[in-house]
Amino acid sequence: VKPYRGHLKLAMTMEGPKTQQPLPLHAYKLLRRTTLNRLFMAVHTVGILALLYHHVHTLLFTTSSITFSLLLLLSDVVLAFIWGCSQAFHFRPIRRCELLHNLKEAVEEKDFPAVDIFICTADPHKEPPMGTVNTALSVMAYDYPSEKVSVYVSDDGGAQATLFAFMEAAKFARHWLPFCRDNQLVERCPQAYFSSTSYSSSAPEADRLKTLYESMKVRVEQTVERGKPLEEHIEDEEMREAFAKWTPDFTPQNHPPVIQVLLASAKDEDLTGGMMPNLIYVSREKNKTHPHRFKAGALNTLVRVSATLTNAPIVLTLDCDTYSNDPQTIKRALCYFSDPEVRPNLAYVQFPQIFRGLNKGDIYSAEHKRLFQINPMGMDGLQGPNYVGAACLFQRRALFGSPSAFIEPEIPEVSPNQTVTKPIGSDDVLKLAHHVAACKYEDRTEWGSKLGFRYGSLVEDYYTGYRLKC
Question: Residue 336 in contact with residue 347, Cβ under 8 Å?
């Protein structure tokens, strides 16, 4: 195991300061199969070269058809090139571990950086709001100071059902977060917890929470079917004003920006009096005359909107169906972001995604282990894994140019260096947030080309990851 040099810890003796010992925050080791991988590559390369030599020799001295021999040579050259490109994943695969016990000594909890979490959804029928709610609740319940966590939900479908679902989630979170904290749950996604074996042996309080969860689920699903909430579910004037924004002219492809602060850590508390994380619903402006750039456009809108409201230095991106199964996730990422030797050139930390297959043996390869778990370890041993669209924590600064070439945004309020001093729900802040969520805002700017998540590709995650590395 090779530890990176982390924070320095001063070793004191009776005679005073004596030595400075590095306090590693993370470590890595080469996988045991690395030597065998390299040996296999060498043998296989010799075999390929021998085969290509045979093809060339046949071409030069053949008395039969040259066309057939030439096609064989070209096909084997192509296959050899494909094989050679894939060997990078096996040349230096490494496994990392985070030394969380050292993080507690290196960084005090009051000095932990704030984190903005982005969750994207687009269609309440194809992506049921309850799945998005479960994802949000799993990250709101992180083992991290709640006042330093802000969850932004991007609803590209502009659906009343999605907003209503998160209004319900905000109420349920007041019960769910202290329950997770008091019982030290690992599975903090309600749906995953209530269907696990841990639930059957849990505290009696769990039954009451399950009843609340099922009741919330029924109300949300009823709203999805109707397209708007029932009158009996609108409990106060604030909710009524929020849904009044859906006028008869409001459509998923043509509507003004909608930004609703559902929870504010400065004023909202859970049942035990603990602080709640910020929870913000965002539906950017849509207009048929302006391209919306799909998910990359939604993420760039969240980068700007979050900059005006909280502007946390760390950004976590998630898909609507990608819940977190580790409450220590942010602290694990801090083991890298807090390392003074690694941090200056570190753009992001990509966590593996785990997909659940159709059966235990995963005979249809629906878990995508090679793409999301095996290959990233090989890439990590070279220049680092690529960004795969979710479960990735960025330094916000990395989205604004390289470490040596900062690109100043068009207004200082969205700069990563800007400090937000006004309350998250103040009129001035919300007015600016609506402004940067407008569809015309990116006109004649560098968003999508040099700033934020990159446009110009159907797979904005891979393209963004490659551009950040170059």
Answer: no
